[in-house]
Write a structure and sequence with these properties.
The protein is an alpha/beta fold. Helix content is about 40%, strand content about 20%. It has helices spanning about 35-45, 60-75, 90-95, 115-125, 140-150, 150-170, 185-200, 215-230, 250-260, 285-295, 310-315, 345-360; strands spanning about 10, 15, 25, 50-55, 80-85, 100-105, 130-135, 175-180, 205-210, 240, 270, 300-305, 320-325, 330-335, 335-345. The strands form three sheets. The protein has an eight-stranded parallel sheet. A five-stranded mixed sheet has the order 11-12-13-14-15. Strands 1-2 form a two-stranded antiparallel ribbon. It is elongated and about 75 Å long. The relative contact order is 0.10.
Length: about 350
């Protein structure tokens, strides 16, 4: 599957871009100076397989906390890349460089004279670390808005001077992001902006996300549509599904989006029909039972189909299939080929598990 070719960029003990896996990120939502709570959230996110963790650093007390946070993580052997999120203060960005793996700056809120950005680039280059130039539609500066409006062109020109300074310093450890709370604009922005930067050889990795997406189903839907659309375009090297919830809830949905877009396989995948009057077994119960007993498996696709009308074709790329063939009767398939027929329903799940296990040997 096509993927936009980008520079490879280090972030702590990981790499992003190129052919490396698309990384899953989240962000701490407690005050950074509350070191105990910050560490608790980092540990939980790390255990949930969050690969990069961002921390807001709005003031000097937050910056001062980073040393203690980093030191404790090293003692606990939690090796997860940390990102300092900076908006208004170049001096605080400089103070964070020794203690994090990436600095995120927002051009709309950073010094418009650019005289403070060059020293930051030099400091980060010396440390072998990375910058994210993260443009948000909601915070374009007044000069950009006056010339270009709140548009993709405005976002392009917001980032451009920072990339030009980095190029003058021969610095390429850069990640880009172009975020919006509007899904269609966010998708359109990337499709307009990135080809322009690629022509300038500014083909840096891209972090994807929808800002202020909200919570519950709607927040997840917005994230899935916006991020998923660009992943299918071949765009995206790290992602965050921003939710107004406990940040740990962002991780599972992020991995699900990556798997649904065929970008990473981290758990078993399932195909299941919604059922209809032709289905002659309790497909919802059976599907849940099969998921429960196979969810620990990785890189496997299992289909549970109510009948043979569409079941055979729809599960064509599944590794294993469980298909109803009549009242209380089930056929089992292996890569589209029927291997067991007319199994009594009460034995069929167990027979499926045996089939899967036999193919692992």
């Amino acid at each position: 599957m096509f993927r936009r070719l980008t520079h490879v960029v280090p972030i702590g003990n990981l790499f992003v871009g190129g052919d490396y896996p698309i990384r899953v990120q989240s962000m701490i939502n407690v005050p950074t100076q509350n070191i105990t709570s910050t560490l608790q959230q980092i540990r939980k996110l790390y255990e949930a397989r969050c690969e990069i963790i961002r921390i807001a650093v709005p003031n000097s007390s937050s910056a001062n906390a980073l040393l203690k946070i980093r030191t404790q993580l090293q003692k606990d052997k939690i090796h997860v890349p940390l990102v300092a999120d900076i908006h208004f203060s170049p001096s605080i960005a400089m103070a964070c460089v020794p203690y994090v793996d990436k600095i995120r700056i927002n051009p709309g809120n950073f010094d418009e004279k650019f005289d403070t950005f060059r020293p930051l680039v030099k400091a980060i280059k010396k440390e072998g670390k990375t910058i994210r130039i993260g443009v948000n539609r909601g915070s374009l500066n007044k000069n950009i808005l006056a010339h270009y409006g709140n548009t993709a062109e405005g976002m392009y020109h917001s980032a451009l001077p920072f990339l030009q300074i980095a190029a003058e310093e021969n610095f390429k450890n850069i990640v880009l992001s172009f975020k919006s709370s509007n899904v269609s604009k966010m998708v359109e922005d990337h499709r307009i902006i990135l080809p322009k930067f690629d022509l300038l050889s500014f083909n840096f990795p891209v972090h994807l996300g929808i800002t202020e997406a909200g919570n519950e189903n709607y927040g997840r839907i917005k994230g899935a549509i916006g991020i998923g659309s660009l992943l299918l375009d071949g765009i995206g090297d790290t992602i965050r599904v921003s939710l107004t919830e406990d940040p740990i809830n962002e991780i599972a949905i992020a991995y699900d989006i990556l798997q649904a877009c065929d970008r990473r396989s981290t758990h078993a995948e399932y195909i299941a029909c919604p059922s209809c009057g032709r289905t002659q077994f309790d497909i919802q119960r059976v599907f849940n039972e099969i998921k429960e007993k196979t969810s620990h498996l990785n890189d496997i696709k299992i289909a549970v189909m109510g009948c043979i009308v569409n079941g055979i074709g729809e599960m064509g790329d599944a590794d294993f299939g469980y298909v109803g063939t009549g009242l209380g009767k089930i056929n089992l398939y292996r890569r589209g080929q029927c291997v067991k027929v007319n199994i009594p329903e009460q034995n069929a799940v167990e027979e499926l598990l045996k089939l899967i296990e036999s193919c692992k040997e």
